[in-house]
Amino acid sequence: MQMSGNDSNKIFYNTVPLEVFQSLTQQGGFDQCIDLELIKKHLPTSASVMEVGAGFGRCVDFLLNRKHEAKILAIEQSPQLSKVLLDKYKDQSKVQVINDDIKTLIVKDKVDVVLWLFSGMLDFAKEEQPVVLKRLKSFLKSDGKLFLDIPQLAELTVAKYTGEQDIVMETPYGNITTFLPSFTDVEHYANLAGFRKVSVINYQTTTEKKRSIFTLEV
Length: 218
Hints:
This protein is an alpha/beta fold and 218 residues long. The protein has helices spanning 5-15, 18-28, 34-39, 58-65, 79-88, 129-138, 183-193; strands at residues 49-52, 72-75, 95-98, 111-116, 140-151, 160-161, 166-169, 176-179, 197-204, 210-217.
């Protein structure tokens, strides 16, 4: 049986060394958290936050450094990266690390904000993306917001196009197969999921990579 994009990409995330993952963050220009700086006004310290694809804790560190007071749910499907997070935040009572795939995740309480940054959406196949977006909406409170960060079309860092919107990144730790949605695609997904408003911030990272942060409001 052929695996979907999300499932096949797990090979990479479950085997890539931590230092390589961190170097990709630096290459992309995210090590100074420029994406989070752009949306921090929407991240009050009293807001409960779910981060999808918490990796090695870049976003969680940003929130903690801002003296975040509310609950932070760090969702990470990779057992390897989840262990890093569990050890890193073992003394942080407000941080809950959950090792699960967003397609099967169940959480007890709704949150104010969902962060899905650093191209996390691209790991899912085209047909999966609107389904996952709808699931994320179900985790949000009635006035909640989802922040989604993706590259702009034709702007790649270490990957290559295999189709108009299909991308592959070849690595010694497994290939990453992705689908890069357009602005129209994201708007369509948001409409299907029931979000009432979509806005976008176009920006450049510190390594001059062109990106877009979408804000989807419930």
